[in-house]
Amino acid sequence: MLKRVAIKGAMALAVSAALISGVQAADTIKIGSFLAVTGPASFLGDPELKTLQMYVDKINAEGGLLGKQVELVHYDTAGNAQKARTFVKRLIESDNVDLIVGGSTSGATLAVIPLVESAKVPFISLAGAVAIVDPVKKWVFKTPHTDRMAAEKIFEDMKSRGFKKVALISGTGGFGRSGRAQATQVIGKYGLELVADETYGPKDTDMTAQLTKIKSTAGVDAILNFGFGQGPAIVTKNYKQLGIDLPLYQSHGVASKKFIELAGNASEGVRLPAAALLLAEQLPDSSAQKPVVVKYKTEYEQKYNSEVSTFGGHAYDGLMLAVNAIKKAGSTDKEKVRAAIESTKNYVGTGGVVNMSAEDHLGLDLSAFKILEIRNGDWTLVK
């Protein structure tokens, strides 16, 4: 008899523990995420996930959010858009997340937009394509500068240097295609002429044929490459090997020290638009961003012993926008949180000062971008 009671008691304790665990799990604020932590876009997803983990832990250590602990529910897409759809469906239907911060690549983000719009779940994307927020989707926001903004910032700099004719080379992946489309649309606005237009595939390992065509095109003043991953580094190396004596611009898709490591000495003199984060200590003390970016940079580099990138910064901004919105809403009611994100004003982040509205789910203008030049293997601000 005693043995049977003991067994029943143990079973009762186990059931109670399970029930308590279930209550605790239901009593967390769930932030879902899907990132390319492995695969060809891991240089995006790895710092993004590390950033989210670090600051979720920090928020919980400081007492949580609305008196609850924050739970990060994450899946690795390896950069695959179909996996992204599968995982986002799981985040919404099985994990019952309150909000989603993720989407390392434009392709993965665009693939899941119909899901989050249908389910009415607030979604803050970490990808670059302007199509993510233009036209505006009710439940979708983003933190990175758009490819259109990158093209405009680059063309603005080219114009200031007296250039007239531009050669474009771009990747055929989602980011490169979108960047090419935006560049061709806005180039005329700056009085520039596109005189060459070449592309390369995501698995191409040599772009000398395309660059040779550009080199032989009469009157080219500067070259712009729109791409991310290893492609831009290969373009830069081939450009150097061919002895092309023209200014080379890259997009914000290479705003990471990984690009400089991959391209090596060939990257010297390359210009690109990027967030102030890469120049944290070089910013004037009068900059509202300086304390924010220096703090994030210091905390990230101390914890992970690796250099900060703008991609991790996008995740920081995405999480902070989400946290601020939940605080403002005073709950995790999805419509209230969505409305709070949309009404964000004067949020000072790593990407710039954010002012959103019903017509603008990014909230950044061209002043959020800086033009950088690579000198002696490091970033320098172009005055």
UniProtKB/TrEMBL annotation:
It comes from the Bacteria. Residues 28-362 form the Leucine-binding protein domain. One of its GO terms (biological process) is amino acid transport. InterPro entries: BCAA_transport, Leu-bd, Leu_Ile_Val-bd, Peripla_BP_I. Keywords: Amino-acid transport, Signal, Transport. Residues 1-25 form the signal peptide. CDD domains: PBP1_ABC_RPA1789-like. Belongs to the leucine-binding protein family. This is ABC transporter substrate-binding protein.
